[in-house]
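Work Package 3 (structural annotation) set out to generate three-dimensional models for the target panel prioritized at the project kickoff. During this period the team completed the workflow that converts sequence records into discrete structure tokens, so that structures can be stored uniformly alongside our sequence database. As a representative example, we reproduce one entry of 302 residues exactly as it appears in the project archive.
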Amino acid sequence: MKRIVLALLISTNLFAQTDDCKCDYIKDYYQLVYEAEISYLQNDFNKAYDLLKQAEKNCELLNQPSVYEIPVLAELSLKRGKYEEALYYVELAFTKGIHVSYFEDNPEYEGITKIEGWAALKQKSQKIYNEWYSKLNLDLRNELAEMIREDQRVRQGKSQYDEELREVDDYNETRFKEILAEYGYPNEQIIGNYNIDEKTVNPDVFAFHIKDIDYFKPMFLEYVRCGKAPVTLYASLIDSYDRRNGVFTYGIYSNITPEYIDDYENLDQRRINAGLRPYKMEKLYQKLMQEKIQKLIEMGKE
């Protein structure tokens, strides 16, 4: 009976998520953002701005970790002299749990504190942040943090056949089903981000150890399509399961070469359909990011 009730809850939740999906992010958003990232890293800021504005026209802006579309648009608006627009995106960033100090301390926003209207925006920034914070489920955040700690603890020096490891995985998978049924995917608008306690709580780690893959596949893909979960969630679930036979579907692991990817000729279309960058674009992105990091390191040594 408990399983039937849980299945009904999941089914109801999944349909609710679909009805609440106002945009197909896989079709109309992610690829534009990826192109914008490449343009940004290549210092083509005008193209990056235009691509992000097109993504915004299609769908409500996300604030994906490592992408941070909203702060980037604030920066690009500032570079173009669109000061009122820059402040609009800064205020929008506050509603996503980003502190005012992020803009004050970041050299890429040099001059923003001198814009007319900045002082008034800063004054109300704490109120905006407090409103965001008040809606968070901190009990759920703490529970997930503990589940993740256990997930990592039992993997220290143990094989996949260890009894305690299997017990923890079984508990986490069952509990994660219940959490998804009750809350939907626990993203930053539900459990908060690093800023609130200087802890990283990424529930997507569970995707790497799920056994009941058919149960989660449609749900995870829907979360990605609706922009409610990390874009890698669905592909991580599939490729992690693929480790059993050593031939992968999406190539999410950086050390996997083409001969270990199933139907490599059609890989890019599969990746796009799952919300990922095309394979070659992913390699270019990683290369450009490494160059940027190395440059920042060298600048820090000067």
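The domain at 25-134 is CATH 1.25.40 (Serine Threonine Protein Phosphatase 5, Tetratricopeptide repeat).
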